[in-house]
Amino acid sequence: MRKKYLCILICLFANALAFASAANRTITGVVISGEDNEPLIGASVYVNADDLKKAGASQTSLGTITDMDGKFSISIPEKVTRLHCSYIGFEEQDIVLQAGKDTYRIVLQASAHTLGDVVVTGYQELERRKLTAAIAKVDVTDGMVGAAKSIDQALAGQIAGVAVTTTSGAPGAPARIRIRGTASLNGTQDPLWVLDGIPLEGTDIPEINKDNDNDIVNMSQSSIAGLSPNDIESITILKDAAATAIYGARAANGVIVVTTKRGKTGKPVINFNTKLTYTPNLNTSRLNLLNSEEKVDLELQLLKEARFDILWGLTDPIPVFPEKGKVAAIMKQYNLIDIYKEQGWNGLTPEAQNAINKLKTINTDWNDILFRDAFTQEYNFSISGGSEKVTYYNSLGYVKENGNVPGVSMSRFNLTSKTSYQINKILKIGMSIFANRRKNNTFMTDTYGLINPIYYSRIANPYFAPFDEQGNYLYDYDVVRSNETDEKQGFNIFEERANTNKESVTTAINSIFDVQLRFNDQWKVYSQIGVQWDQLSQEEYAGINSYNIRNIRETNKYWKNGVQTYLIPEGGMLKTTNSTTSQLTWKIQGEYKNTFGDIHDIQIMAGSEIRKNWVDNQASTGYGYDPKKLTFQNLIFKDEAQANDWNLKTKSYKENAFASFFANGSYTLIKNQFYWEIVIHWEEVCAWMVLIYSE
Question: Which one, of 323, 337, 326, 324, lies nearest residue 292 by Cα?
């Protein structure tokens, strides 16, 4: 009887085992790093408690870890459809299980939070704990960028010791960046920009001098302006000599290293964002400018001052203040200036008094008519993703920024494409393309900068009206820097806007090709080829009915054989400028790092960089221009000496080639937190040529 019951129990136990085996499935696989395709030892592979509950399992936890080869095996309930995999320093990944598939290859990507502990210097990646130099890193986020349309403007107020000032308020105007103050009196003061390991050419901001101090609105953009902040992952700024030594003398003003976004293994990720920015009209109420009544009273008071006898009667006395302004013009019209100086207001005729009183009733709000509310629109689209072998990141962007001055704007279209291929466990190649096209519209500046509305609105008289009752232009003769009124050089800012134009179109392409050989965790060889091409096409036009042309004609006339002759013929002016900047860079470097006994850490890097750049500038200016016939007229020179002073066509060509060699070695005693580093950089100019041609 006992044997009978024992046989029954054995059968029931066997059936239970068979049922349990049928209700479970065994999942096997391997977990590897997406950085170097090396297996991850000790990675956790587990089933979430909620998934176990949904599958009807009695246990509340189920998991395993990978072995020395990164492999794992786990038995899970049949109804479980998802596994989780995690590892310190890597992003957690969910694996959706497929019917009939029991073996999986899981690739984990490095965590963005862990990457924050690694600083990219352009030549290598260093752990933050090993840094002894002054290096700052900032992640580029929507909050950091704000309403800025370029990355140089977005750096304002982000990092201590980095001063960022805009050259002007015009759309697309570059920002002047100074890292720990000014490092040079005569040379360039701008930092070196590095894009994904490749230094950029043409990022210097022109200095303001006597030739362009009135043209601050039209300061040229730097080559970094075409890069969309939406495509940037982080920015690292190297501040002191210890941090910038690896770059040599060109990094005397600091280095700004830009790291762009890249694709990650996984399903395609699509992002689209748009920004609409409203910029209200400028508010000048706090400037406390004079109104018309106050300005007229001031002019009357200045005209009372007696003339100054500078040579004790040998010459006619001169006025203490220039006899300019509408009040002086009215008194000159009635020949009342001398009478006014003697008798005051009561000495003026009723006609003159009425004309002066009428000025007090005109109050032109220059801020209201010269400026406007501005709207800016920005659109960005990106798609990224990849597999174990290939990752990609592609983006498109468009920006249209309108200035507070009507007719002043900037537009930018940019394209970014980055692809990385893992050929095998050792070889990895990548290609990046950054292309953009920027267009700026503004007005052509004049000798005194009167076209600048910020400046003109501060010096224009409040009683001056720019149009008459019929809508015709009225001319301002008081803003011109002359003691006497010149009827031939009247200025009207609205006429100037209608008859002048300056358009700049910049096309830029940056391509980076890289190859990486990673033999193991200790040895790595890395090479990059960078190609940069920037082209600027600029056209400046001033019509015959502009103050710009009238001023040039009147200031360049002469007498010859008793006849007054104008050097500049009647007509407009057209100036075209074409500039091309090209650079080719090749860099190769090797790196070795190892840790001995868990306390001695050694890292050695050495390499070479060869670069060559070309700068080609051409400019031509024509006068007597007829925009309908597209024809020019010759200048009428007084003599050969005067002809030599006018360079209507200029051409310059500059070519440079550099070879540099660098090495970096560091030793870290982890136990005592001791760090020692040595940097070597040697550079030589291999070729240098400048050709300047003018006629």
Answer: 326
